[in-house]
Structure formats: structure tokens, C-alpha cells
Design goal:
It is built from 14 helices and twelve strands. By secondary structure, it is of the alpha/beta class.
Length: 369
């Protein structure tokens, strides 16, 4: 960049996948950054009413963040769609990364992928979507998300740039040696318990596997937090497990560190990702990088991200998932082929490439000032 051509990246301080995106992008771009926890605070307050005192406290935090943005004399990159609401207060062009439109679809549909937003959430979400329309450029991680932006928000195609997310292959790598993450052979699921993650289908498929004598010792390991306070997602999960009489066979791990996560990926018999909706979806990419064969949903962006690196199955077809999991568990040749194809796929998904392509967007927006 030239001396007068800079973009300030907002780096959100939190533990979600969208926070990871902003921190990894900053690591590889090494440009100006504004660190803020405003997104995390907003997420923690989904589904509260305007009568809740924290709703007004959140407004104070919002205005504090707006003041911080005003001190940035450069183009600003807002790293997720829920920060697009602040674009209304910027006098200079801004860039937004839109990871998905899940909350938009929850707001407009009779069904929901996470939770139906209340009146307060709808105000904020509408500001987000209006902010996306005002952005100078929108970065989308997949062609699927780009199509969603064009279809649901009427964003012009030439305003959207598709830049896939990356995976850190120095961290996510095959790790076969050392202590066992789980003493039993296991199917692995990594993610929240939101309805869109489709954990019910996986539990039903796992139940089907357990009816076969050769899989009696198999466990299902579920890694990840329930998914926020908008609803008691964990209660839903435990109820499903009880209904299927799987209490002794499902292991839930809420919070584990990155090294332990790599071990779980590396030592799993198979990774399962039955999601109904993803804007990108990191877990299957991390699984492939760790040399874990996988079965993944054929819905939304997942086939685009996984490519030939996994078996694709309809996320509504329980029997299809039982068969696919059984194939990987019993066919050594198929396992080795999927591992090889997965490792090849992740070579195209590096943070260096993500940063390089993002920098090109920065230059394009700056040169139009």
C-alpha cells in the first residue's frame, strides 16, 4: 500500500468463527487495526427485550464504538455482516465481509435456522442489511453466500467479491501419536447445537449404526458450546439423546483448547457435518486438514467448500447417512482415498491466499476515493 492508502480492519475480540476470521486476517495483513468487543457484546444480548436494562447499556457501547470508528481516517473493513449496522455512521467508503444471511432468513421465514428474532433484534438486523447495501464492497466466502446476497438483499453482483476463508495447516494437521482424545472409536461432530446444524439427523443416523453389532462399541463425540442464550439449545440436545436411549454413547465436550481439538479431529474414525445451512463452514475444512475422512451435507455452501474431499449426503436422508458412515467405518480403501482428497483440497484454502485477495479489494476501494 502507498503511504496514503490504508484500510483499517476492525478485529473483533471473541471466540466465534467470525472473530477467528478477523484475527487471522489481521495476522497475515499486518495493517492498521481497531480492536473491539462490540460484536461479542451484541451476540451475548440476542433475544433480550427493549425493557431489559442491558439493551440500553448495549446502546452506550454502540455509540462508544461509533466514536472509535470516527477516529479512523481510512477506509474501514467491518469483518462480519452484523457490524454493517455501523456503516451508516461512516463518512468514507467501507468494506464488509458477509459470512452468511442466516439471521436474515430467520427474520423472514416461518422456520428458523438458529432462533426467530424478537422485535429488538429485528431493528438491529434490519440496520445490518441496510448497511450491507451501502458498503463499497462486500466480501463473501462462497459463491453460495454471494447468490444469497444478490437474491435476498438485491446486492449488485459486481459489488460482491468471493474470497474463501483459510485454514492454518501448521495448526490443523494429522496428529496420530500421543494420548488418545477418547478411549473408544468415535464419530466426531464439531459445532453448536443450533437447529441449522442438524444434530438431530446425526443422532438418528448414529442410532441406526448402533443397531449393527459391529458398531456397538462406537461413540459419538460432540465438541462445541450449545450456541448462545437465545434458547436452551442444550436442553433440546439432551432430550433428543434421551429419546434415542443414547446417554451412554454420546460424549459432549463444551470447551476444549485448540491442541485438543486437533487431536479429536486426527483420531476420529469419521467426521460428520450434516448442516442445513452454512455460509462457509470451518469444521469440515479443519477435519480434512487433520486427515480425517468425512461425510458432509449436500446443502448450501458445503459441497463448494468440501469439494471432492468428502462424501456428500442429503441432510434430510437418515438412511443415506447411516450407509455413508458405515462405508467409511468399514472400507479402508475409501477412507484412504477420502483422506488423500481432503488433504489435497485444503491446499487451496490458505490464510495467505485469503489475505492476498483481500488486499486486492482494499486497493480497489482505495483507488476509487
Amino acid at each position: 500500500m502507498g503511504e496514503d492508502e490504508v484500510v483499517t480492519l476492525v478485529m473483533t475480540d471473541g471466540a466465534s468463527s467470525q472473530d477467528l476470521y478477523s484475527s487471522r486476517l489481521h495476522y497475515y495483513l499486518k495493517g492498521p487495526v481497531l480492536v473491539s468487543d462490540v460484536y461479542q457484546k451484541s451476540c451475548e444480548r440476542f433475544n433480550i427485550s427493549w425493557a431489559n436494562p442491558m439493551a440500553w447499556r448495549t446502546l452506550i457501547w454502540d455509540f462508544q464504538f461509533i466514536r472509535s470508528l470516527h477516529r479512523c481516517e481510512d477506509v474501514v473493513h467491518l469483518p462480519n455482516q452484523h457490524l454493517a449496522r455501523f456503516g451508516h455512521f461512516l463518512s468514507r467508503p467501507f468494506i464488509v465481509t458477509a459470512h452468511d444471511l442466516i439471521r436474515f432468513l430467520d427474520m423472514r421465514s416461518d422456520s428458523f435456522y438458529i432462533h426467530r428474532p424478537n422485535k429488538r433484534d429485528r431493528v438491529y438486523l434490519q440496520l445490518d442489511f441496510n448497511g450491507l447495501r451501502k458498503a463499497a464492497r462486500i466480501i463473501a466466502p462462497t459463491q453460495h453466500t454471494k447468490r444469497d446476497l444478490m437474491k435476498h438483499l438485491a446486492i449488485p453482483e459486481d459489488k460482491i467479491v468471493v474470497i474463501p476463508h483459510g485454514v492454518d495447516s501448521k495448526v490443523f494437521r494429522p496428529l496420530r501419536e500421543g494420548a488418545r482424545a477418547c478411549p473408544h472409536p468415535y464419530v466426531l461432530f464439531v459445532g453448536s447445537e443450533h437447529p441449522r446444524k442438524n444434530l438431530r439427523l446425526l443422532l438418528e443416523a448414529f442410532y441406526g449404526l448402533k443397531q449393527k453389532s459391529r458398531f456397538r462399541g462406537l461413540k459419538l463425540v460432540k465438541v462445541g458450546s450449545p450456541g448462545g442464550g437465545a434458547r436452551d439449545f442444550r436442553a433440546d440436545t439432551l432430550r433428543m439423546i434421551r429419546e434415542l436411549n443414547l446417554e451412554a454413547d454420546v460424549i459432549i465436550k463444551d470447551f476444549i483448547d485448540q491442541d485438543e481439538l486437533v487431536r479429536f479431529y486426527s483420531q476420529a474414525e469419521v467426521f460428520a457435518f450434516p448442516s442445513l445451512y452454512e455460509g462457509f463452514g470451518w469444521p469440515p475444512v479443519e477435519a480434512m486438514a487433520c486427515g480425517c475422512p468425512l461425510v458432509a451435507s449436500s446443502a448450501t455452501s458445503v459441497p463448494e467448500v468440501v469439494g471432492r474431499g468428502g462424501l456428500m449426503r442429503d441432510p434430510q436422508d437418515v438412511d443415506g447417512w447411516v450407509d455413508a458412515l458405515a462405508q467409511i467405518l468399514t472400507d479402508r480403501h475409501l477412507r484412504e482415498e477420502l483422506i488423500s482428497r481432503g488433504m489435497e483440497r485444503v491446499k487451496d484454502l490458505s490464510w495467505e491466499r485469503t489475505a492476498h485477495l483481500t488486499l486486492e479489494v482494499y486497493h480497489e476501494v482505495e483507488h476509487k476515493l
